[in-house]
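We close this part of the discussion by returning to an individual protein. Part of our work consisted of pairing the sequence of a single chain with a tokenised description of its backbone. No coordinates are needed to read the tokens, only the vocabulary itself. The amino acid sequence and the backbone structure tokens for this protein are reproduced below:
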Amino acid sequence: MPAAALTDRWPEIGADELITALVPPPRFDAVRFSTYVPNPEEPSQAEAVEACSAFAHEVADGGRKRRSGWRSLFGGGATAGPEQPGLYLDGGFGVGKTHLLASIWHEVPAPKSYGTFVELTNLVGVLGFAEAVRRLSEHRLLAIDEFELDDPGDTMLVTRLLRELTDAGVNVAATSNTLPDRLGEGRFAAEDFLREIQSLAARFGVVRVDGPDYRHRGLPDAPDPVSDAELTASAERRPDSTLDDFAPLCEHLSRLHPSRYGRLLDGVSVMHLRDVRTAPDQTVALRLVALADRLYDRAIPVVTSGVRLSELFDEDMVHGGYRKKYLRAVSRLTALARDAAETPASAS
């Protein structure tokens, strides 16, 4: 039976649903501090578990206390100051920052919200700034994954948003691969916005999480792309899978707001993508990053034909201002391709 195509789907999502959907993705439904396994060669990981657990308990108790063991963003090795409403997990790819962030969220009683940085900016775009502040200020915790500032507009928007939310008593936990005082570096003239960035950074204490990418620790590289015939056969034999050509899917993504990408993947067991090519430009590449994040959130395996996943973004992209986004996407897609290779195509 021919597989369904993502390009035939036109998902809709309402404003109320955007708020109720602000929860950890299915991949992180069951994670807790107790299920995080620190790398014994990286002591910062065990320290991060302790610091995050302490933060979660303080938020759950309704207080903002001095969090010992944190370092402030300014002033050398001093600990973070009292009444600081934010915790910031800094580290490389695949060290378990999202696991820890989701664990914080699970530990804190409702009302609370959890979303990626992109989902947060999408929410403001759909609801409007004042309505987003009104709704989110009712929560005791806002967890933000993959925090990045890609342009001056986002800098001003998020700084103002977090200032108003933290002033309203909302605690914020965030993850990123970039320290808050260096957000935006390499993507726009960050020095022009230094005051705004420092204002944002001053609201966070930093917890460092070091280590290698667990998704590839001791594992082989992504499997080779399959032939088009193998791709079609796999899609036809895997229930609830989809099969799309790369270029038409990229075009389809351009017609959907990124807030709909998650809904686009509802019910998909495996995504098959034919004739994958290097992204033709940065706009397409960033949409693919957003799609890769939603695929990873939902643990949807990926099978491809065409170029290797490591060639999805060209050298200029990988060494440009969005380098960390592209490397994260390749890391996640590689893990999903390996998942597909480990599952027989005849699986039901």
